[in-house]
Amino acid sequence: MSPATPPTEPSPEPSPVRPRRRVLRTVGLIAVAAVLGLVGGTAVGYRVQADREPVALPPLNQPGLAYPAEPLPEGQEPEALSAKEDLQTKAQGDLRKLLLPRPAGARAGEEDGWQSLVEYANDFTRPDGALDFQLEQGFRRAAVRTWRSGEHRWVKIELAQYRSNSGMGAYEHVRGQQSIAMRESKSGSIGEPVKGSGNGRYFVYPVDRRAGYLDDYDARAFIQRGDIAITIIISDTRKISGDEIRSLAERQLGRL
C-alpha cells in the first residue's frame, strides 16, 4: 500500500496590484486643480486691478523731438541735397559714368559699357552656379570697363548693382568673392582693407608659374558700397604691388 500522498498546500494568493489608472487619475485631478487655481487667481487679480483707480504713468525720460511741431515757414525749409551729395541719386543714374576712366595712354579692352547677367555670370569658373546665385541675390544691372597698358598688363573693373528690396545682394556677393580669394591666396591671407570702404579688401596673389608659359601675377579687390558690388582685377606677367591695386580700389570707391 503506497504511502498517503501529503495534501497539497494551497498556493498563496498573489498580492493585489493597485490599478495604474487610479494613480494617473489622481495626478490628473491634482493638475486640473492647479490649473483651476491659477486661472482663478488670475481672474481675481484682474478683478482687483479693474476696481482700482487708474494711475498716470511717469513721463518718458527723453529729450524733445528734433523735428518742429509745425511745418517751417515758406523759404526756411532746408535745402535739398545736390546730386553730388545724394549718393542714392548718383547710384540710380548711368552706372557706366561711375566707372573709373581709362588712364591716358592705355588701350581700350574688349569690354566697355553695359554687361548682361549672362555675360556677367560667364566670367566665373562655374557660370551656371553663378547665374543662379545672382538671380537669388536680386541682380539688377552691371557695367564694366577693361583696358591694357604696358606690355602685358590687363585691368578690369566691374560694378554690379542689386535690387534693394531683395536683401543684401551686394554684400553677399562681395563676401563670397573675398572668401574665395582667401583660399586662392594659398597663404591664409585675409587681404588688406580698402580705406574708407568698411568691408572692402584687396588681395595680391602669389605668382603662378607653369612650364612653357610666362609668369602670371594677379591682384584683386572686392568692395561693397550700398547696393553696388565693386570688383577690380589686375593681371600682368610682372609683379603687381599692393599699392597699385589699393590705389585703384580707393579711386574707384571715390567715384561712388
Description:
By secondary structure, the chain is of the alpha+beta class. It contains 6 helices and 7 strands; from the N terminus they run H-H-E-H-H-E-E-H-E-E-E-E-H. The chain has a domain at 88-255: Protein Transport Mog1p, Chain A (3-Layer(aba) Sandwich).
The CATH C-level name of the domain at 88-255 is Alpha Beta
Helix-strand sequence = HHEHHEEHEEEEH
CATH architecture of the domain at 88-255: 3-Layer(aba) Sandwich
* Main beta sheet strand tally, sense and closure: 7 strands, antiparallel
CATH topology of the domain at 88-255: Protein Transport Mog1p, Chain A
- Global Rg: 37 Å
Shape: elongated
Strand content: 15-25%
Q: For the largest sheet, list the strands in their spatial order.
A: 1-2-3-7-6-5-4
Distance between the terminal alpha carbons, to the nearest Å? 124 Å
Overall average residue pLDDT? 78
Number of helices: 6
Q: Please count the beta strands (DSSP E, at least 2 residues each).
A: 7
List low-confidence stretches: 1-5, 7-30, 32-36
Share of helix among residues?
25-40%
* Helix-and-strand structural type: alpha+beta
Task: Furnish the topology, listing elements before pairings.
Layout: H1 20-51, H2 87-91, E1 107-115, H3 117-122, H4 127-136, E2 139-149, E3 153-162, H5 169-184, E4 192-193, E5 201-204, E6 217-225, E7 228-236, H6 242-255
